[in-house]
């Protein structure tokens, strides 16, 4: 009997007439394509093993990619444990015996830990809940609860194994118990429910017709040129060979079974996009240009499953892991999906036959926010384009801006709505997208500034606002 995921994939195929990730239209550029694939394999192996990459030129071509490499190394440590915790090649690390015992405890039907997991999995599969976000929230809460149960109360020899692991630590080491238990819970809870969750995702997006809408727009956008995506002439998008490489990574991402593995591969995709995109005079790829290039990449790779994969990671990964760069780039993927869903409609509304973040129609959409930030040192206004998910709160937007703008005292800053030059402070729980839509027809901007700063805003309308 076919599994639920096979049935889900067949339903998607019936809708799309193709697989979730279509690479057939990408033409590989002979030797260059083979070279890039070889580089990708080396880069991927390096991320998996946390060792030094043989091809440093490929990895260090841009400063942003060095940041991503550090994030990927940290992610590898979360999955496999810190290399310094490995005592030798033959012996295991201090946390390995505790991880093995926790997995063994989950197989003991007499333990409360095992019974709780079995009951939760059975109840989840038998439930009629049709909203994947609700199912993932329940999974996330259950995994956090089981981790707290083991740490606070323990069961069997858990605390004894924990003390043994602590005794093996060096004086300058520690055991990341939360990260270790997170990987265990993914294996015990996420893995058995993965096929069930994918089926719910497909049913949900099929009912809402989001899959059909995205597939239709991706087919249309796939035939368009880079300029039709609003990519500036000075920015060179990834080549056909690079797109083939990225598509292979996206295929691996879809095949990966656990959220941490998916996030690891997703950051590898982002790093490859940065490496494969040419910028004028060796500059780094800016936020505005990156978002447009990401829309281009998702369309050209035929990544129709992008929304499901993004939501899968968002819903099941530990929230603290999504702070900073991983969360920013995952939000960018969600934004790219929302833009692609309205690609054909946006082309018609813009009147120019292409997308443009700087136009008057896109900044008000639910996938991006344009925020002005006053530079009090030189009296100028900077504009930042932020990828946001639907219903993102003011608090989350402020956190993203503070991180990207490297604000060291974010408690002194806030987000304001400017309507005809009049400031209104947005509360933490408000939705900036809704605030902009409520001011439709008026000259409305969003500004991130010091709460105590006294600023006279310009009467002339800023470009893109």
From TrEMBL:
GO cellular component terms given for this protein: cytosol; endocytic vesicle
Key words, A-Z: Signal
GO biological process, one term: vesicle-mediated transport
Domain VPS9: 207-349
GO molecular function, one term: small GTPase binding
Listed Pfam families: RA (PF00788), RIN1 (PF23268), VPS9 (PF02204)
Signal peptide, first to last residue: 1-29
Parts forming coiled coils: none
Domain called Ras-associating: residue spans: 365-453
Protein name: Uncharacterized protein, isoform C
Gene: Dyak\GE15387
């Amino acid at each position: 009997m076919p599994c639920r995921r096979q049935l889900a994939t067949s339903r998607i195929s019936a809708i799309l007439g193709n697989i979730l990730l279509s690479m057939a239209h990408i033409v590989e550029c002979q030797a260059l394509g083979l070279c890039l694939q070889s580089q990708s394999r080396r880069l991927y192996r390096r991320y998996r093993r946390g060792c030094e990459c043989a091809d440093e030129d490929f990895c260090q071509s841009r400063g942003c990619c060095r940041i991503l490499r550090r994030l990927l190394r940290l992610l590898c440590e979360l999955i496999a444990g810190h290399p310094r915790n490995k005592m030798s090649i033959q012996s295991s690390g201090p946390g390995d015996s505790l991880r093995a015992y926790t997995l063994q405890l989950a197989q003991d039907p007499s333990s409360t830990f095992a019974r709780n997991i079995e009951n939760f999995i059975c109840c989840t599969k038998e439930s009629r809940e049709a909203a994947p976000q609700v199912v993932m929230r329940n999974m996330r809460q259950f995994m956090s609860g089981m981790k707290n149960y083991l740490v606070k109360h323990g069961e069997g020899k858990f605390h004894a194994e924990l003390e043994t692991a602590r005794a093996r630590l060096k004086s300058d080491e520690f055991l990341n118990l939360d990260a270790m238990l997170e990987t265990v819970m993914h294996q015990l809870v996420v893995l058995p429910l993965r096929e069930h969750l994918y089926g719910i995702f497909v049913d949900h997006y099929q009912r809402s017709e989001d899959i059909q809408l995205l597939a239709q727009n991706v087919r249309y956008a796939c035939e368009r040129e880079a300029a039709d995506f609003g990519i500036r002439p000075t920015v060179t998008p990834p080549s056909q060979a690079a797109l083939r490489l990225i598509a292979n990574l996206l295929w691996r991402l879809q095949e990966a079974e656990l959220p941490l593995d998916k996030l690891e591969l997703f950051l590898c995709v982002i790093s490859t996009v940065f490496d494969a995109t040419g910028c004028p005079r060796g500059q780094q790829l800016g936020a505005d240009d990156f978002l447009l290039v990401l829309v281009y990449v998702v369309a050209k790779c035929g990544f129709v499953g992008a929304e499901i994969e993004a939501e899968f990671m968002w819903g099941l990964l530990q929230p603290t892991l999504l702070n900073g760069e991983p969360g920013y780039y995952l939000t960018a993927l969600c934004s790219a999906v929302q833009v692609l869903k309205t690609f054909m409609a946006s082309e018609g509304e813009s009147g120019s036959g292409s997308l443009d973040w700087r136009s008057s129609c896109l900044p008000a959409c639910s996938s991006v926010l344009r925020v002005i930030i006053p530079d009090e040192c030189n009296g100028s206004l900077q504009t930042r384009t932020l990828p946001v998910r639907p219903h993102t709160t003011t608090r989350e937007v402020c956190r993203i801006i503070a991180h990207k703008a490297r604000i060291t005292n974010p408690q002194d800053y806030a987000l304001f709505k400017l309507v005809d030059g009049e400031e209104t402070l947005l509360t933490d729980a408000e939705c900036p997208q809704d605030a902009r839509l409520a001011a439709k027809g008026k000259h409305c901007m969003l500004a991130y500034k010091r709460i105590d700063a006294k600023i006279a805003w310009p009467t002339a309308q800023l470009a893109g606002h």
